[in-house]
Amino acid sequence: MQTDDSAPLNSSAVEPLYGASMLGQTLLSLLVVVALILLLGLLARKLLRPTRSKDDILQQIATTHLGPRERLVLIAFRGNTELLLGISNGNISLIHKHDRHALSPPNTDHDFDRMLAAHSETLTDADLSSLSGESQ
């Protein structure tokens, strides 16, 4: 005789639990693989990045993108010469070269004071009244 305990399990009740379990396990595995790829990418970027020192012959100062494949790059060569390069698809052109220290801005405070003093000596009272808008 058979008892009711040995009856086969209802397969329709077991399949949804098994399917959800498989879906969760697959998503978890996918998440682990994506995290591993991102971690390896960050590690490779960190390890393969070139180190910079102050003794570098070339240093990139600024970059301006002009289009998807065109850009202008300002580079310091040995710290005292600046090169403005135009870079496009497969082509690098020297646009301008100058001494880095030649473009340092003058001390405008002292220059302005000196120019104002020189011009104020040459101004007459009539010039001053015309500047202030007074009529004579």
TrEMBL record:
GO terms for biological process: bacterial-type flagellum organization. It is found in: Bacterial flagellum basal body; Cell membrane. GO terms for cellular component: bacterial-type flagellum basal body; plasma membrane. Pfam families: FliO (PF04347). InterPro entries: Flagellar_biosynth_FliO, FliO/MopB. It comes from the Bacteria. Keywords: Bacterial flagellum, Cell membrane, Membrane, Transmembrane, Transmembrane helix. The keyword Transmembrane helix applies. The chain crosses the membrane at residues 20-44. PANTHER family: FLAGELLAR PROTEIN FLIO. Belongs to the FliO/MopB family. This is Flagellar protein. It comes from Halioglobus japonicus.
